[in-house]
Amino acid sequence: MFLVGVELKSRNAWEIRESLDELTELAATAGADVIGDGTQKMEAPMAATFIGSGKAQEFARHCVSNEVDTVIFDDELTPAQSRNLEQVFNCKILDRTSLILDIFAQRARTKEGKLQIELAQLQHLLPRLTRFWGHLSRQKGGIGMRGDGETQLETDRRRVQDRIARIARELEVVRRQRSTQRHGRQRNLWPLASIVGYTNAGKSTLLNAVTGADVLAENKLFATLDPTTRRLRLPTNQNVLLTDTVGFIRKLPHNLVEAFKATLEEVVQADLLIHVVDGSSPQAEEQIAAVNAVLDEIGAAGKPTMMVFNKIDKLVNGERNFIQSVPNAVAISAKTGEGIPELMAELGKQLKPIREFIELSVPHENAAVIARLHAVGQVMERDYEGEQARFKVRIPPHLHEEFAPFIVQALQTV
User: Fold this and answer.
1) Rounded to an integer, what is the distance from CA 406 to the centroid of its chain?
2) What was the pLDDT predicted at 273?
3) Which pLDDT score, from 0 to 100, does residue 370 have?
4) What radius of gyration, in Å, describes the C-alpha atoms of the chain?
5) Which pLDDT score, from 0 to 100, does residue 144 have?
6) Following DSSP, what letter does each residue of 265-328 receive, concatenated?
7) Which end of the chain is more exposed for a tag (fewer CB within 10 A), N or C?
8) Which residues contact 188 (CB under 8 A, 6 or more apart)?
C-alpha cells in the first residue's frame, strides 16, 4: 500500500507529515502493509486527479515497481478524481474517508453500530456508483435508448437510496430508545458524564480502571466503537453514569458524524464531558483542537468539560509543563492508576447535583403522588406512621411545582 498527501499553501510541512503518519496507523489498523508515501506541494488540488498528472505518473511507476495494489490519498477524493486516478495507477484507489469507514465496518459489534456504519458507507457510495458501471455501454437518447450500464446504474442507485431510507428509520427507533433510557436514568437523578477524546487516548482504559468494566482496550486507532455506560460511585457516595464513546480524529468524515448522531447524543446530553488527552503525544494540542471541532459539529461545544491528561507514566517531570498550564486539568495514568484518586475527587466537585432537599407530607390515599415521588426523586427518609406519610427527598428544581401542595419545609442540604 502506498500513501499520498498534498501540502497545500494553507498547511505546514509538519502538518502533512503528522497526517500521513496517522494515515499509516489507520492503514495498519485496517490490516494493510504500507511500503511508503509521497507528497506534492500545490496551491490547490487539481480537479481531475487531485495531484498533478506528472506527479501521479511518477507515483504510479513507483507503485508498479513495488507491486503496490492499493493507493490511499490523505484527503477525500471526488468520484471523478477516483476514476481518473484508477486509470493512471491501474490499481485500487482509496481516500482517507473510505479507509476510516472500512475500519469502522471491521470494528462494529452491535446491531446499532453496524447500521450506523452501513449508512455512512452507502452515503459515501451513492455519488460514486457511476465508476462501478463505467465498463458498460452508456448510450444517450430518449426512452429505450439507454445502455445496460445506465439502466443498471439507475437500478442500483434506487436500491441504495431505499436502503439508506430504511436504515435511517431503524436508527430513528434507536434514537427514541436511547431517549427512553436517558429518561430512565434521570429518574435516579444520576448525572451523566461522557468520556470523549482523540482515538487511542486511553478512554476505554480509563473506563475500565474506574468502573471495573471490561471494554476492549488496545493500542490501536478506533479499538472500540460501540458506546458503553457503567455506574461509577464517587468518594462523595454519589452515583454517576459514565459513558465511553467513539474516538474522534482529524478529518473525521461528515457522513460518519451524521450516521453516529444516535450514539453521539450521549455526548450532547451529558452533564459533564471528560476530555481525555494523550499527554505523551507531541500532537496533544492539535488533537484537542480536532476533538473540539467534532464537538462543535454535533452541538456539544461549550458544555462543562474536565480535561484529563492520560499516559503520564510515559513522561518525565520536565515534560509536564504543558499539562500544568491547562486550568483545572487532572494528570493521570489509567494504566498504572496514578492520579485516579485526584480524578475521582475532581469529578465529585464538578458533578455535585443541583437538587432541592425538601420535606413532604402526603395523604396515604394519594398513592399516585407517593409512587411519582419514588419514581423521580431520591427519597432519603420515609415515615408511614400517622394520618399522612412524610418524606425527606431530593428532587430536581423543575418538579417543585408538581409537589408544591405537599411541601412542608425546605431542608438544609448537607
Assistant:
1) 44
2) 92
3) 93
4) 27
5) 42
6) HHHHT-SEEEEEEETT-TTHHHHHHHHHHHHHHTT-TTS-EEEEEE-GGG--GGGGHHHHTSTT
7) C
8) 239, 378
Cα(152)–Cα(35) distance, integer angstroms? 37
Q: Where do the domains of the chain lie, and which CATH numbers do they carry?
A: 2-104 (3.40.50.11060), 108-172 (no CATH), 189-350 (3.40.50.300), 356-410 (no CATH)
Tell me the binding residues: 197-204, 222-226, 244-247, 310-313, 333-335
Please give the model's pTM, rounded to 2 decimal places. 0.72
Strands 192-197, 228-233: pairing is unpaired
The distance from CA 24 to its chain's CA centroid, rounded to whole angstroms, is 21
Cell of residue 17, nine digits: 507529515
- Residue 145, C-alpha cell as written in the block: 435508448
**Which residues does the annotation place in the binding site for Mg(2+)?**
204, 224
pLDDT tens digit string along 260-317?
766 677 788 788 899 999 988 888 888 999 899 888 988 888 888 999 999 988 887 6
Is-contact 414 396, C-beta < 8 A?
no
Annotated binding site for GTP: 197-204, 222-226, 244-247, 310-313, 333-335
